[in-house]
Amino acid sequence: MEKILVVGAAGQIGSELTLALRKIYGNENVFATDIKDAPKDVKKSGPFQLLDVMDDKRLIHFVIRYKITQIYLLAAVLSGNAERLPLQAWDINMRSLLNILDLAREVGIRKIFWPSSIAVFGMTTPKTDTPQLTIMEPNTVYGISKLAGERWCEYYNHKHGLDVRSIRYPGLISYKTEAGGGTTDYAVEIFYDAIESKKYECFLKPDTKLPMMFMDDAIRATTELMEADSSRLSIRSSYNLSGITFDPRQLSDEIKKYIPDFEITYKPDFRQVIAESWPQSIDDSVARNDWGWKHKINLEKMTRIMLKETEKKFKHK
Ligand code: AKB
After folding, report:
1. Residue with CA nearest ligand 1 atom 6
2. Looking at the annotation, which residues are catalytic?
3. How confident is the model at residue 198 (pLDDT cuts 50, 70, 90)?
4. For 128-146, how does the pLDDT look when each residue is reduced to its tens digit (9 = 90+)?
5. Which of 26, 29, 98, 217 has its CA 20 to 30 A from that of 16?
6. From the CA of 182, how far away is ligand 1's center (Å)?
């Protein structure tokens, strides 16, 4: 019987992944935790507790008390916020991972999931169809922490046999819980502003292409990777994962099909430089070959769902 701990269950990925895991493993077997309060459905559908991943003593008590067998560590400071508070972000992103890896080795956790990001790449990386193995010289605090994290995951796998699995998520687009402090977050904010005021001021330039993915695909990728036979996994740092590539202008054109008087203006800020250091599209053939990954949701479908669901959210406010 699997007993699963989700750290960061109130966040953009965690709030949806917790519900997906509860469907697979049973509500009572998935323990949601965060340092902040979680959405109602996360709290109602199964156990939820406030827990700080930086508090290693409480963490180990929790894991032993509830006989945890798998851990999903989703807590992180994203790219934009990390540039504002570099040392704090480094400390949170690294210490949370090292706490979990070491605890997992000590108590014998069966499987761990930890998200990496396209932020591990940098200016010197090939921009299109970025390969799994390539030049990696990230120049953001977040990207450096993710690249170091990948190295630690692989180290714990090779050295201690820990079954750590990871994905380099592209920008994730979802309507349930708002993202916070990322460079790709314009692609979430735009839907809120389109519904509320039919206007959006974008912090990236119109032609800034970035790899993105709708949350349903990202959740499916995560559960598929975690269920794959361990012998099939050739990558123990983190898998490239590809979904959709678009820029702010293409996204706003898509929104205009549903809201013809929608207006977008551009006022690039410090996040433009971050976006320009990241790839535009990703080659995920290794993930496809190893565990059969294939994305399903394209720009048209994603826009339709986002507009419909964001509108519903406003109506119920
Ligand atoms: C961010 O923009 O910081 C994140 C990411 C790509 O990891 N969404």
Report:
1. 171
2. 142
3. very high
4. 999 999 999 999 999 999 9
5. 98
6. 5
Q: Whose CA is nearest to atom 4 of ligand 1?
A: 182
For the chain, list the domains and their CATH numbers: 4-170+214-240 (3.40.50.720), 172-212+243-280+296-315 (3.90.25.10)
Of ligand 1's listed atoms, the one at least distance from the Cα of 146 is 7
Q: Are 36 and 30 in contact, with CB atoms under 8 Å apart?
A: no
Q: Phi/psi of residue 185, each to 5°?
A: -65, -15
Query: For the whole prediction, is pTM greater than 0.70?
Result: yes
User: Which residues approach ligand 1 with their CB closer than 6 A?
Assistant: 78-79, 117-119, 142, 169, 171-172, 182-184
DSSP H helical segments within 27-85, as ranges? 40-45, 56-65, 79-84
Distance CA 101, CA 111 (A): 10
Helix axes 56-65, 86-107, angle to 10 degrees: 40
Contact 116, 150 (CB under 8 A): yes
DSSP strand pairing (164-169 vs 199-202): unpaired
